[in-house]
Design goal:
Layout: H1 2-17, H2 33-45, H3 62-76, H4 81-92, H5 107-138, H6 147-158
Helix pairs in contact: 2-3
């Protein structure tokens, strides 16, 4: 029984360890570890145009491989990280970046989520206010009493019970 559990744990470890995170092939790896680290960091910031929700570092698509090689070529040519990103944006557009830059033409993209959240919160607040007002109109018992009604209520509450039987509460 222990062997079966050990085999299951080992199989789970192998499955977790062999994910698509190792999409970079050995022939793509640069000989300089510093440049390879830069290339991997840049690859994690770039979107695979085929997969669209993966970075080119994680994708096994042929286009992602081409982009990884292009990043490594630009780094080998002496480009800085910003120059590599600018080159790829000029060639493929802003969509190639997993995290778009905050610029004038991407401002709506960055502000849309907070604006929608604020609008939703305002709509809920307005709904609550309207519901409270309509509840007071529909249910007059929850509305405030007039001065005459308050006086009558005080009179009724101070009056002694008429019968000799004790007053029982609700059951």
């Amino acid at each position: 029984m222990k062997r079966i559990i050990l085999a299951c744990v080992l199989a789970a470890c192998v499955m977790v360890g062999s994910s698509a995170a190792y999409a970079v092939l050995p022939d793509e790896v640069m000989s300089d570890p510093v440049k390879e680290t830069r290339a991997r960091d840049l690859s994690r910031e770039l979107r695979c145009m085929v997969c669209q929700n993966q970075s080119i570092d994680d994708s096994e698509a042929p286009l992602a491989r081409d982009l990884r090689l292009l990043v490594r070529e630009r780094i080998a040519a002496g480009d800085s990280d910003a120059q590599v990103l600018d080159f790829l944006v000029a060639r493929y557009g802003e969509f190639v970046l997993l995290k778009p830059r905050l610029e004038r033409h991407t401002l709506l993209l960055w502000l849309l989520t907070p604006l929608v959240l604020l609008g939703g919160g305002f709509a809920l607040w307005m709904y609550g206010r309207r519901r409270g007002k309509s509840a007071a109109v529909e249910n007059p018992s929850s509305a405030k009493l007039t001065a005459e009604e308050e006086a009558r209520l005080r009179q009724l509450m101070s009056a002694e019970p008429v019968s000799d039987q004790p007053v029982q509460g609700p059951r």
